[in-house]
Structure formats: C-alpha cells, structure tokens
Design a protein that fits this description.
The complex is a heterodimer of chains A (270) and B (353). In chain A, helix 3 packs across helix 13, helix 5 crosses helix 8 and helix 10 packs antiparallel against helix 13. Chain A contains 13 helices and no strands. Chain A has 270 residues and is mostly helical. In chain A, 81% of the residues lie in helices and 0% in strands. The longest helix of chain A has 34 residues. In chain B, 25% of the residues lie in helices and 34% in strands. Chain B contains 9 helices and 20 strands. Chain B has a 6-stranded mixed beta sheet, with helices on both faces. Chain B has a 5-stranded antiparallel beta sheet with strand order 13-12-11-14-20. A 5-stranded antiparallel beta sheet of chain B has the order 15-19-16-17-18. Classes of the chains: A mainly alpha (270), B alpha+beta (353). The interface between A and B is medium-sized, with 21 and 27 residues.
C-alpha cells in the first residue's frame, strides 16, 4: 500500500504537479489568514474573551438561533425536498428558481425585506404585537433572517439525496404492504440521510455566519458576527480579534463533531 | 383467481394492448416474450405500481384495479431484487411483517420458517451489497413469501444468475409452487418457460398471441412469431435415463418406445427433449456420420417456409426438419416416401420438468 502510493507520486506527470501546486496556493489562501489571525492573538487575550459574558452570551445566542432555525425549517424543508425530487408539476422550474433566490439576493436586501415582514406595521408584526411580542430585535427575527439566507442549502442538498434513492425501492416497500408514510421514514429518508444531514449542517453553518441580513432586523441582542463588527468599528482590530478567534474555534469544533457524526453513519447508498 | 380483463397501458415507447388472461389457484403461469414487449409493465399493473389506461384486474373475483398497492396481497420480486441496501438480509425479509401489525414473536417465527424453507439462515446478518446474485435473489424471494401473498409475481428471476444458481433457483421456484403458491413469472427464455410453466402465455408487441401448456405452444405455434421465437418445432415429452453401458457420457432419452442419445448436465428424470428443425439432417439411407441419432421414418408433410422447406417425418412421432428447396429437388423428396432422420447428440436439449 505504502509502496504503491510512493510510486504514484513518482509517476506524477509534470502537468499534474503544476495543478497540485496551484491547489496548494488555494489552500494557503484559505488557511493562511485564519492561521495568522490565530497566531496574532495572545493566549491572555483569548482567555479574557472567553471570560467576557458579552462574548460567551453572543456565541451561545448565535449557535442556538442558527441551530433552531435549521431544525425548524428542516421539518418543512425535508418533505418539500422529497416532493421536489419525486414529482413533476407545472412551474417546477420556477419553484426551483425561487428556492435559489436567497443565494443571489444581496444579504442586506434580504434583511430589508425581512424587516418589512417583521416590523410592527406588517400583519405578522402587528399580530405578534397584540400578544405582547416584539419581533424586531428578538431571537425570532435573528432566526428568520438566518434561515432566509440559508434555506436553499438544506433543500438543494436534501433534494439531491432523495433523487439518489431509487424509486424501485420505494415501490418494493409499498408492494410489501408498507404505507406511504412508512416508506418515507424507513426507506427514502434513511437512504437519503447523508445528504439530508449534510444539508442541515450546511444550512446551520451558513446561518451561523450571517451578518448582513441579521444586522438589519436585530442589532441587539448581538450575535457574534455583529459583536465582532461592533468591536472592530468602535475599538479596532486588536479588540475584535480575540472574539473572532474564539468564535471560529467554537464553530470549528461543533462543525467537526457534526461531520464526524454524519460520516460515522454508513453510507446507505451502495 | 387472478383475472385480467382487457388491460391497456400506453407508454412513450410501447403499449400493452387489451391483455386478458386468467391464472388459477396454485398454477404456475409463465409469460414469455422478448424484452421490451411490456411484460414487466404488466406485472406492475397487477401489483398496482403502474396504473392502466383501461381494463380491470380481479383477484378472487374482486375488482382491485383501484385498490391501494399495500392492500393487494400481491408480492412482486424484481429482476434486480430491489433489496433495501441499508437493512440486513433479515431486516429485509422482516420488512413486510413490520409494516403490518404483527407481534415481535410472530415476526421471528414466520421469518425463521421462511429462512428454513429457502435455506438462507446463514445470510441473515449480511448486508445486501455483499450478497451474490443468487443469494440476493433468495432473500428477495423470502421477503416476498413471508407476507404470504395470494399471488407471487416474478420479473425475470433467473436472468441475473449464473448457470449453477439458475438450476438451484428453478428447483426452488418449483418447490414453492408445489407447496400451493400461485405464481406468475415473466421471462424471455423459452427453456425457463418449459421447465417451470403449467401454462405459457406468449406476448408479442404488447398483446397476447398464444396461451397454452408447453406442449401446445411448442408443438402447435399459432403464429410465425411464436414459431420463430421459440425457435424449435420438435418438442417431445419423455424420460431421461442415466448413460447406458455403451453410450459413453451421453444420457438416453426415452419416449414412445424410441430412445435418443443426448448430452446433458441434468440428472435423470421426466422432462422434454427439444431439437431445432435446422439441426436435423435427412438422408436416403443410414449413412455413417458424426450424428449419433439415426431413425427411419416416413415423410408425412412438406410445407414451404421462410428459411426453406419444412419436412415433417413420422418416426414414431413427428419431427420437423428444415432443408433448402434445392435439396428437396435433388433428393426427390415427397410425401409418403421413406427417409432417414439424423441429428447429433449435442444438438438435442433436455429440459427437466
């Protein structure tokens, strides 16, 4: 095995060596700034940031709002993705284009649009107001803004997953006497699970990092991307960096854990 | 038990036209036709997986044309098995029972019984991806049988198997049928049809062109298509005996007082002996050739066909040989003349019953 991989390197054609070097540049481009930022941050500063309740509070808020948003929209998004994978219907292309819309809409524009729906002047906003709930500046607004910009990732990934599940397997299950409901939960969903989970993680990660849309509907309570921005604009780079590094590390750890969980599940599509 | 009444389905590429047929309780019916004539679609219509444009499906006298798939009690075994890849072999077999309200103890008992019947205990914990074609086919069969379907549909169940597992699977299917299971099987392989069927249904261009016992189909094909498709006109019922003292590796097939030499891997027993018309040669006298089978008979019929002239010779029963028109003239063949029939032991095919 070892010998083989060694001889593979030896046999590498020059063109592939050039391509690999180009790939290395890209990797450096991604990893370089992150590593340099971490290296420029002293351990003392980081401990300070970890001890700062404003920082920990905002990280916690960011994580739970983005996760709740992803879970909540999964309940609606996964069945919808299944329908999109299985059914042909009029204007399906239009529907697919609408789903992709949040990816192309500028995020501040998305925030302004959300503001229109959530503000006290709107139907939704005024209804909530009647119950004594103020939407603007609430975690609900944060979730809404995060979900708006990240839902396409969930639906597209889940749809790909369901498309990969052979319809014959579903038919075979129906033929054995299972109900549609049972077929979905015991055949379609488990077989598409990797893509579905990956969609949920993508949606969550995308929501987590959202700034533009959230800053318009909820400056306070402050999610971490906004806290970072605020510290940067008020106090400068030196003060923004520790928060950024802590947030980055927390995200990476959670992300890796989730990836491990998803990867641990055997890929059912054999 | 199952009755199809004028089933029609139109697809982009082909259509099923007015298909009507009946399957009796405990019967083994084989639908024989070339691939792409709509045999699989017909099975899907019966199972309710595809809807038909017109016509009706009756099961036990009840119209089930619009019955939900899961309430039909008709199990379909797919050609590619369609095992659930994320479930173990045992879980696959349990699937149908778990979909009904069956207690755990009962599930275990029923699944164990099916595992015994088709001998798949050793495969229970395997993942479908690791099974061979024959093993996967048996799991698929077990998965269908465990729900005790009124009717078992088989879509080309042998075509994905190698020769060895094919023989085993055939005898397994026969055994299942003998235990009372009504079966409807589609295939493009006439040997499979002869071996298994109580009744054969020939499908041609989306409709049924002939129905009958294997004997009726092969001895009296009603259309040129059937004759060409089955490729053989000579189809004799009898018994295979083990090789005799002076026959070498060749077995002896006996029927109606005559015996033929035949090279076969099947073990002795009842069955059919078949030989293609173009594998038979005619001669005026018993000449010494490499052909081991030589019989004297009388020409009883001559009919021109696409390939030449069909000569029917009575040697105790009737055999059909196809020869060119030129040969007919040079040999001065005519009805009523005596003639010798010759064929090689390797040209004949024995098909067990």
């Amino acid at each position: 095995m070892k010998l083989q991989s060694f001889s593979n390197v030896k046999a590498l054609p020059p063109l592939h060596m050039i391509f690999m070097a180009m790939g290395g540049c890209i990797l450096l481009f991604i990893v370089g700034p992150l590593v340099s930022m971490i290296l420029h941050t002293g351990a003392g500063e980081m401990m300070e940031a970890v001890a700062d309740p404003e920082v920990t509070g905002s990280i916690w808020l960011t994580i739970w709002t983005s996760m709740t948003g992803a879970f909540f929209f999964s309940i609606f998004g996964i069945p919808f993705a299944y329908i999109l994978a299985r059914k042909e219907f009029p204007f399906k292309r239009l529907v697919l284009a609408i789903i992709d819309l949040p990816i192309v809409v500028p995020h501040t524009a998305a925030g302004i649009a959300m503001l229109g729906v959530l503000s006290r002047n709107s139907l939704l906003g005024s209804t909530a107001d009647n119950f004594g709930i103020e939407l603007i500046g609430s975690p609900i607004a944060i979730m809404a803004a995060m979900s708006f910009v990240s839902i396409p990732f969930l639906i597209n990934s889940a749809r790909d997953g369901f498309e990969g599940v052979s319809e014959r397997l579903e038919k075979a299950a129906l033929n054995l006497g299972a109900s549609q409901f049972r077929v979905f939960f015991t055949i379609s969903l488990p077989l598409a699970w990797r893509s579905v989970l990956s969609g949920i993680i993508l949606m969550w990660a995308r929501g987590l990092s959202e700034f533009g849309a959230v800053v318009i509907v909820a400056y306070h309570p402050m999610i971490t991307p906004i806290l970072i921005y605020e510290r940067f604009s008020s106090f400068g780079l030196k003060y923004a960096r520790p928060v950024t590094v802590v947030f980055l590390l927390v995200c990476l750890i959670v992300f890796m854990l989730l990836r491990l969980m998803a990867g641990g599940k055997k890929n059912a599509k054999t | 038990m199952l009755r199809l009444d004028g089933i029609s389905v139109t697809f982009d590429k082909f259509q099923l036209k007015n298909v009507s047929l009946e399957v009796k309780e405990g019967e083994y019916v084989v639908i024989l036709g070339m691939s792409g004539v709509g045999k699989s679609v017909l099975l899907e219509v019966i199972a309710g997986l595809t809807s038909n444009d017109s016509g009706a499906v009756y099961l036990d006298g009840k119209d089930i044309t619009h019955e939900k798939i899961q309430h039909r009690s008709i199990a379909l075994v797919y050609q590619d098995q369609a095992l659930f890849p994320h479930l173990s072999a045992r879980r696959n077999v349990e699937y149908g029972l778990r979909s009904r309200r069956v207690s755990k103890a009962q599930i275990k008992q029923k699944v164990d019984k099916v595992f015994d019947e088709i001998d798949i205990h050793h495969l229970a914990d395997r993942s479908p991806g690791t099974l061979s074609g024959g093993e996967a086919q048996r799991i698929a069969l077990g998965r269908a049988l465990v729900i005790k379907p009124r009717l078992l549909l088989l879509d080309e169940p042998l075509s994905a198997l190698d020769v060895q597992s094919r023989g085993k699977m055939q005898s397994l299917l026969r055994r299942i049928n003998h235990s009372g299971q009504t079966m409807l099987h589609v295939t493009h392989d006439y040997e499979e049809a002869i071996s298994l069927a109580d009744r054969i249904v020939i499908m041609e261009d989306g409709s049924i062109s002939q129905m009958g016992t294997p004997n009726e189909i092969f001895q009296k094909p009603t259309s040129r298509f059937v004759a060409n498709f089955v490729g053989i006109r000579n189809f004799i019922k009898g018994e295979l005996l083990p090789p005799g003292p002076d026959t070498g590796k060749m077995s002896v097939f006996k029927s109606n007082g005559l015996s033929f030499l035949v090279l076969t891997t099947f073990s002795p027993g009842k069955g059919h002996f078949t030989i293609r018309s173009d594998d038979i040669t005619l001669s005026q006298s018993p000449v010494q050739t490499s052909a081991q089978n030589r019989y004297e008979g009388i020409i009883v019929d001559m009919a021109p066909s696409k390939l030449g002239v069909e000569i029917m010779v009575d040697i105790g029963f009737k055999l059909v040989a196809i020869i060119t028109e030129k040969t007919v003239n040079t040999m001065k063949l005519a009805i009523g003349r005596p003639i010798w029939v010759n064929f090689k032991a390797t040209a004949g095919v024995f098909l067990p019953e």
